Amino acid sequence: VIYFHYSQLFLLSLGVILIITCMISWLKDVTREATFQGHHTKIAVLGLKIGFLLFIVSEVLFFFSFFWAFFHSSLSPSVEIGVIWPPVGIDPLNPFSVPLLNTAILLSSGATVTWAHHSIVSGQRSESIQGLSLTVVLGVLFTALQAMEYVEAPFSIADSVYGTTFFVATGFHGLHVIIGTIFLFIC
């Protein structure tokens, strides 16, 4: 919030640094416990399962709220935005250009990570590495195209509720792709 109002990067940078530090420490511990020291204990496995379940529930609620904001604003546009959707002065992106390409990339990455998973299960190491590598490349490509789309967008996050819902929802999704790409790269 301070970044948006005062353009000060200190707290934003501090938060990002702390998140990255926690992520590195956690991944190091999980990797050490699962590979070098043997298997997790039953309590650790239960904790990981419950934590993962709570994570999935929180993610569903996040995205539900983003879609709720979009549909509420688009199906019942307010007087402040001209009672029209998209608001007056907003030139929406063509859904058949970069968004369609990004959709194809994400679907392809789902196929390649499934290929990698099946290769791991069947013990085919070289194919699993190929599948994971291709998935990481597709994740980086998606992120690059999303960044290009943000830079070239004819509206900003400050341009009414349309810009806000677009950048928050797609930014949150892009953040998930970046984190997933990092996790798969570590694998």
UniProtKB/TrEMBL annotation:
<dbReference type="InterPro" id="IPR000298">
    <property type="entry name" value="Cyt_c_oxidase-like_su3"/>
</dbReference>
<dbReference type="InterPro" id="IPR035973">
    <property type="entry name" value="Cyt_c_oxidase_su3-like_sf"/>
</dbReference>
<dbReference type="GO" id="GO:0016020">
    <property type="term" value="C:membrane"/>
</dbReference>
<protein>
    <recommendedName>
        <fullName>Cytochrome c oxidase subunit 3</fullName>
    </recommendedName>
</protein>
<feature type="transmembrane region" description="Helical">
    <location>
        <begin position="6"/>
        <end position="27"/>
    </location>
</feature>
<dbReference type="GO" id="GO:0005739">
    <property type="term" value="C:mitochondrion"/>
</dbReference>
<dbReference type="InterPro" id="IPR033945">
    <property type="entry name" value="Cyt_c_oxase_su3_dom"/>
</dbReference>
<feature type="transmembrane region" description="Helical">
    <location>
        <begin position="96"/>
        <end position="116"/>
    </location>
</feature>
<dbReference type="InterPro" id="IPR013833">
    <property type="entry name" value="Cyt_c_oxidase_su3_a-hlx"/>
</dbReference>
<dbReference type="GO" id="GO:0004129">
    <property type="term" value="F:cytochrome-c oxidase activity"/>
</dbReference>
<feature type="transmembrane region" description="Helical">
    <location>
        <begin position="48"/>
        <end position="71"/>
    </location>
</feature>
<feature type="transmembrane region" description="Helical">
    <location>
        <begin position="128"/>
        <end position="148"/>
    </location>
</feature>
<keyword id="KW-0496">Mitochondrion</keyword>
<dbReference type="Pfam" id="PF00510">
    <property type="entry name" value="COX3"/>
</dbReference>
<keyword id="KW-1133">Transmembrane helix</keyword>
<comment type="similarity">
    <text>Belongs to the cytochrome c oxidase subunit 3 family.</text>
</comment>
<dbReference type="InterPro" id="IPR024791">
    <property type="entry name" value="Cyt_c/ubiquinol_Oxase_su3"/>
</dbReference>
<keyword id="KW-0472">Membrane</keyword>
<feature type="transmembrane region" description="Helical">
    <location>
        <begin position="160"/>
        <end position="186"/>
    </location>
</feature>
<keyword id="KW-1278">Translocase</keyword>
<dbReference type="GO" id="GO:0006123">
    <property type="term" value="P:mitochondrial electron transport, cytochrome c to oxygen"/>
</dbReference>
<feature type="domain" description="Heme-copper oxidase subunit III family profile">
    <location>
        <begin position="1"/>
        <end position="187"/>
    </location>
</feature>
<comment type="function">
    <text>Component of the cytochrome c oxidase, the last enzyme in the mitochondrial electron transport chain which drives oxidative phosphorylation. The respiratory chain contains 3 multisubunit complexes succinate dehydrogenase (complex II, CII), ubiquinol-cytochrome c oxidoreductase (cytochrome b-c1 complex, complex III, CIII) and cytochrome c oxidase (complex IV, CIV), that cooperate to transfer electrons derived from NADH and succinate to molecular oxygen, creating an electrochemical gradient over the inner membrane that drives transmembrane transport and the ATP synthase.</text>
</comment>
<keyword id="KW-0812">Transmembrane</keyword>
